[in-house]
Automatic annotation (TrEMBL):
Alphabetic keyword roster: Hydrolase, Membrane, Protease, Transmembrane, Transmembrane helix
GO MF annotations, alphabetized: serine-type endopeptidase activity
TM helices/strands, residue ranges: 41-64
Protein's name according to its UniProt entry: Trypsin-like serine protease with PDZ domain containing protein
A Pfam family assignment: Trypsin_2
Lineage: Bacteria, Bacillati, Bacillota, Clostridia, Eubacteriales
């Protein structure tokens, strides 16, 4: 059995393109479906986490999407409609897409019934609660010809003030390198308020699985946003997005549209999120900003968009009813209580990797956390996890699916492959703090 493989081997054999910036930081994964018969071109699809990158490398990151069948159908139909038609003189001209929202936007998006606001009124109500967030990450470059050089790389996103004493909701990917567990102790967070004030912020807690984080500034009497009930949202309802596209240069930008769909299942990395879809324009820098209903209540946290040439109006937000319980725990404890933790670092063994390295398909254990649940159960570096709680494990997504069905303190069986033999162990999940 040959367990000697490196990340370069691993990535080069994947079905995805792994792109890195000039600093060597992970930048994006682009899904590359196989070329279809009949000479059709390969289509590149990516789900972009909308953080504005101020310098050359992508701190916020870009992740690929694994669309649900329903979303696949919508994207394909949009692409089909965008195919150019041959004009009568032999040239070609693009087909103009017309949607029901064109007529709505041409008149008045919002009615003026009881409790309902115009776009201008929503902007005045919610705008003061939307802040800009800059994350500054220190870098040190080593050179054989010069002494080490230090620099700082910045990324910008948005946030929502939700308490008068300075607690702010944002996306985890906006502030992830300020999380102490990511090892960037000198990472600085700066918050820019609509009234032109600036304040240093402290990282309170984050949940990478749900892409949510809470930070805090030491100011009082701040305008807290009114949080709404996302379960009351219906497809076709008007929606307003407020944030900082492309960073602070366009701070407080307001775009409007409708709720395009609910309960969209999108996969980002190893996590699957249930999101609200909207055609309100969402761009890099809008991450962590507000998606607002016609009453001026925040019903979603803008997080991502579909990035496909020729496709627009596919933005996504985390529903407030999903975010609020998580945010409350992050504010109180700094983490989400009861989440199970195994205590491993791992990589997937695909069918192709399995053939190359004579390993079973599963999850390869590259590191075991000292004092963690995996170490206590007897799991070792170099093991391949093939089964957990009677479920077959072929990917990190399979592993996460099992964990979501359990809480800290639960005990399950685990089967690992070690030196060509299967070993059955018992593992008790610890708490992920």
């Amino acid at each position: 059995m040959n367990n000697n493989f490196n990340n370069d081997d691993w990535n080069s054999q994947s079905q995805y393109n792994f792109n890195y910036d000039n600093q060597g930081y992970y930048k994006e994964i682009v899904v590359q479906p196989r070329k279809k018969r009949g000479g059709r071109f390969i289509t590149y699809l990516s789900l972009v986490l909308v953080t504005s990158l101020v310098t050359s490398f992508a701190v916020g990151g870009v992740m690929y999407s694994n669309f649900s069948r329903q979303l696949d159908s919508q994207v394909n139909s949009l692409k089909q409609a965008a195919v150019t038609q041959t004009s009568s003189d032999g040239g070609s001209s693009p087909t103009k897409l017309s949607t029901a929202t064109d007529n709505v936007k041409a008149t008045n998006l919002f009615s003026t019934g009881t409790g309902e606001l115009t776009v201008a009124q929503i902007a005045k109500k919610v705008g003061p609660s939307i802040v800009g967030i800059k994350m500054s990450v220190p870098n040190t470059r080593q050179s054989p010809f010069y002494s080490s050089r230090s620099s700082t790389s910045d990324s910008e996103g948005s946030g929502i003030i939700f308490t008068e004493d300075g607690y702010i909701i944002t996306n985890y990917h906006v502030v992830q390198y300020a999380d102490p567990k990511n090892g960037a102790a000198n990472t600085a967070l700066t918050v820019y308020l609509p009234d032109k004030r600036e304040a240093k912020a402290k990282f309170i807690g984050g949940d990478s699985e749900n892409d949510l984080a809470v930070i805090k500034i030491d100011l009082t009497n701040l305008p807290a946003a009114e949080l709404g009930d996302s379960s009351e949202v219906e497809v076709g309802d008007p929606a307003v997005a407020i944030g900082n596209p492309l960073g602070m240069e366009f701070a407080g930008s307001v775009t409007y549209g409708v709720i395009s769909a609910l309960n969209r299942q999108l996969k980002t990395g190893d996590n699957s999120l249930t999101l609200i879809q909207t055609d309100a324009a969402i761009n890099p820098g809008n991450s962590g900003g507000a998606l607002v209903n016609k009453k001026g209540q925040v019903i979603g946290i803008n997080s991502a968009k579909i990035s496909v040439e020729g496709i627009e109006g596919l933005g996504f937000a985390i529903p407030m009813n999903t975010a609020k319980p998580i945010v409350d725990q992050l504010k109180t404890y700094g983490y989400v209580k009861g989440k199970p933790l195994i205590g491993i670092s791992a990589q997937e063994v695909t069918a192709e990797i399995s053939r190359m390295y004579d390993l079973p398909v599963g999850v390869y254990i590259s590191e075991v956390t000292q004092g963690g649940a995996a170490e206590a159960a007897g799991i070792q570096k170099g093991d391949v996890l093939v089964k957990l709680d009677v479920s077959k494990i072929e990917s990190m997504a399979d592993l996460d699916a099992v964990k979501k069905n359990h809480k800290a303190g639960d005990t399950v069986s685990a089967v690992v492959s070690r030196d060509g033999k299967e070993v059955t162990l018992s593992i008790t999940f610890s708490e992920d703090k």
